[in-house]
Amino acid sequence: MPNWPKSVWARQPEMTTLPPLPDIQSLWQDTAPPAPTPQPLAGDMQTDIAIIGGGYTGLSTARALAARGVDAVVLEANRLGWGASGRNGGVVSGKFRLGFAEMARRWDIDTARRMHDIGVEATENIGTLLNAYGIDADYRASGSLRCAHRAQALESLRAECDWLRGTLGDDAVSILSPEEMAAETGSHDFCGGMLNRHGGIVHPLKLHRGLVAGMRRDGIRIFDTSPVTAIERTDSGVRLHTPGGTVNARQVVMATDAYASLTPATRPVERRVVPFRSAMIATQPLTGTAGEALLAQGRSYTETRRMMRWFRKSGDRLLYGGRGAFGKDDSPAAFAALERAMFRQFPQLQGLAVTHRWSGLVAMTMDSLPHLGRLDDRMVYAMGYNGTGVALSNWIGPHVAELALGGTSQAALMGQLPLPQVPFYPIREVGVRLVAGWYQFLDAIGK
Ligand SMILES: Cc1cc2nc3c(=O)[nH]c(=O)nc-3n(C[C@H](O)[C@H](O)[C@H](O)COP(=O)(O)OP(=O)(O)OC[C@H]3O[C@@H](n4cnc5c(N)ncnc54)[C@H](O)[C@@H]3O)c2cc1C
What is the DSSP letter of 109? Predict the structure, then answer.
């Protein structure tokens, strides 16, 4: 019998009360500049486009609208950076959960090429944004390394690498030998790997805070601790209600990703994604310890196991994360499992302290792709990054803006395909649990 996890469905303990909710304690919170003083919406105001959600998606949409001279208001339920954008792993990647070769098989080569180009564009956009706003967010364009845990996984990486180089002409990818992997990672667990020089790592909350500060300097209105509790249709558009006031707009953009169940206002999108808990831990500083030399290239690293584990450095600490079997809520047992995996992988770290433990929700979609689209004549959405949204959600704004202004999206599959309701949503917990349990079982028996 496989060892089924009790549950992987994230019941979202943060959501038992109405926002604003307390900030989570993360390494990012402890190492970012101080949070801006809360600026809740007070009174009634008018704008062209109202945006629900102050994460990267909401901010990039507001920036794109401002660049076109269109007035927008961002409404965030909690403190700024409370959502995934302030607590993620900071891995800047142009990957989609659906591979490019699979896209070529399902659609055609031009579609796969366009999606690949978008991924590269999105990763490069992070450097552009940081420069434009003068933000220091510890960004390193150091690429990523996929670490093969067994020979069959390495064969798939090799096939993927050949395909990317041969068919898409992407010379930024290459295969590394077991020796190179040991030198790169400090772990002897890997029989090879695939290096991808696109992308890198960033401090996600420094990025978010820098963007908010820069956008406010530019006069863009961003309100936090202002949950949208209801959306009313008016003669000329919509009226968004918050505890402190209302916003009248022509259009509303839903940019709530995995957190659409905070209030009933975003119910139209809530059932289009499945929230999945992703957790991470951080060690004490490694300087002067046996772990000091680990991950010297400062890339991001992912394992090829189905219940994927990933790691990176931040300053001189190691961050170790994973998705899947983390129980209904954050629990000491769930984080202990992650710690055991980290110490198994890196025995050099034995005896060192884990100083931070935190988690958040990623939004999975049925087709493993992010989506932007229109719900009706007044509502637009962008969401479903499937755990790889740092680059894409910061890139997507101009496409969401175009939709909100009545145009059509040029975001290839993300804008062309519908984002349907998740079937059997009320029993999604069972589905997620079964899939995750099955994956763990296959990993455990080496399949
Ligand atoms: C633990 C974790 C690790 C991750 N690691 C990575 C990584 O390393 N690399 C990567 O590429 N991606 C990663 N991701 C995914 C990435 O962080 C997300 O895809 C991205 O941040 C999504 O941004 P967003 O703006 O769409 O959503 P969010 O940042 O989640 O913002 C949505 C916001 O909407 C607000 N909201 C909800 N309802 C309302 C309402 N009614 N009124 C007002 N506001 C509302 C919420 O408070 C929230 O702040 C990770 C995610 C998590 C949770």
Answer: H
Strands (E), 324-400: 354-364, 371-376, 379-383
Give the nearest ligand 1 atom to 55 CA: 25
CA 237 to chain centre: 31
Structure tokens that stand for 117 in this block? 């180009």
Compute, in angstroms, the gap from residue 54 CA to the centroid of ligand 1: 9
Reduced to 3 states (helix: H, G, I; strand: E, B; else coil), residue 290 is coil
Q: Decide whether any atom of ligand 1 lies within 6 Å of the 262 Cβ.
A: yes
All domains in the chain, ordered by first residue: 17-88+205-272+366-428 (3.50.50.60)
Which one, of 102, 89, 12, 6, lies nearest residue 323 by Cα? 89
- The single-letter code of the amino acid at 120 is V
Ligand 1 atom nearest the C-alpha of 226 is 43
Read off the pLDDT of residues 251-308 as tens digits, 9 standing for 90 and up.
999 999 999 999 999 999 999 999 988 899 999 999 999 999 999 999 999 999 877 7
The token pair that represents 316 in the structure block: 């001189």
The pLDDT, as a whole number, for residue 410 is: 85
